[in-house]
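In this notebook, the sequence line spells out the residues, with the fold written below as integer tokens. This is how one looks.
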Amino acid sequence: MPKTMICVRNDYNPINADQEASYKKNDSITENQAHKPNDMKHEVTSEQLDSIVEDQAQQPDGNKIDIGSQLAPPIEAKFVIVGDSVGKTNLIRVFCQREFVEGMPVTVFDEGTMNITVDGQRVQVGWWDTAGQEDYDKLRPLSYPNTDVYIVCFSIVYPDSFENAQEKWVPEIKKHCHPKIPIILVGTKKDERNDPNILAELARFRQQPIKYEEGQAMAKCVGAITYLECSAKNNDGVTEVFEAATRAMLSARNRTKAPKKKKGKTPDACKPM
């Protein structure tokens, strides 16, 4: 399988709750900004060309990618990450910078770009990290227009966030987006599922961590295309989240180009969990 190539954003600087007043005063998000990720000029230097050729020479024949596709401008896409305060910012930070921050300040809003190559296709992703607090329910939808994939996150060790994924986050994005836009459900903090201290704390409230099977069932219920688990702290499953989102975007775009087929029977609606 072709390697994943990531372009790290060097100016990562999320807006946190301490900057909220200035943020709202300056009205930093406009609808026009929300409609389009940052532009990035596409240039290929001789050094990049040499690197591509050298990389291809080291690949097995079955994994070689057409060099022309490497030189072509990447496809542009937009991913929006939503959910309670469950480690969304660290999920992005670990993917972009390979850096996990303990006690990450609450993010009000942040956005940036990254380049990723999946299955031979180069994609420039504009990502949007949204606030999970109720105070920003009116502000958050400004980031939704023209989204290609929604990544809905909950914490495996915070059952309330799991319920909110179904009762708040999926309904909210479906209200503002086309029904066929892919949704990926992600359980964060996988590393804490068997932590004795966390298990003891959950037991006090007669709760327990969310099981993998419950996440799968939830994904099916809300119409997500897949369910994934990750640990940003251990960098476990993080890359898989963004690879899955990229493949979902590419698949959705390919479907829009394909000839329309006759509609089949509509599946039964899922029952409340």
